[in-house]
Amino acid sequence: MNNDNTPTVSYKDTPPDFSPCFVSECPKRAECIRYAVGQTFPPGPRMGICVFPQSLQDGECSYFYPLRTIREAWGFDPLFYDVKARDETPLRQSIERYVGSRSAYFRYNHGIRTLTPEQQDDILQLFAERGYDTSELHFANYRETIDYHAD
Question: Angle, nearest 10°, between helix axes 117-129 and 85-99?
Fold first, then answer.
């Protein structure tokens, strides 16, 4: 975090399979999370997965991913506070299917994994499809962080 509590880009925060970039000729490098991560790369590693210079074709990179801050969420309990009993199990099962499994549901509910804004919207849509007003619904926890979901 910076002094103003905004998250900072850091290689140590990236997922293990994240591909950094070191292509200094790229015209979009200042806007790209991959290049920003590459600039924080530690001195130790000598090889690994990364974006190759050949990815840059005619000034465009097929692996460009915008550097952005997102509001991640986790914890489903508040979503169910005003849900009718008959809708509770079907909604939980719909979320489990959406995130991939019951164990994934557990991870997202307990903050082991976090939901992107797009995933949050998709989950709220499940409630809307059952007639619930999603304007008042919220997840248990939120945090501002750098979006490393490029891969």
Answer: 150
Under 8 Å between Cβ of 10 and 140: no
* Closest among 43, 24, 44, 49 to 35, alpha carbons compared: 24
Q: Give dist(CA 4, CA 112) in Å, integer.
A: 26
CA gap 69, 9 in Å, rounded: 10
Handedness of CA 102, 93, 137, 144 (dihedral sign): positive
Query: What span, in angstroms and rounded, lies between the C-alpha atoms of 71 and 73?
Result: 7
E-state strands within 1-151? 56-57, 60-61, 69-74, 141-146
Q: What is the pLDDT of residues 32-84, one digit of tens each?
A: 999 999 999 888 777 888 899 999 999 899 899 999 999 999 999 999 999 99
How distant, in Å, are the alpha carbons of 26, 41, 81, 138 from that of 122?
Answer: 34, 34, 19, 13
Helix 102-109 with 85-99: angle, nearest 10 deg: 100
pLDDT in tens, 120-140: 999 999 999 999 999 999 999
Q: Facing residues of 26 across strands?
A: none
Tell me the pTM. Answer: 0.77
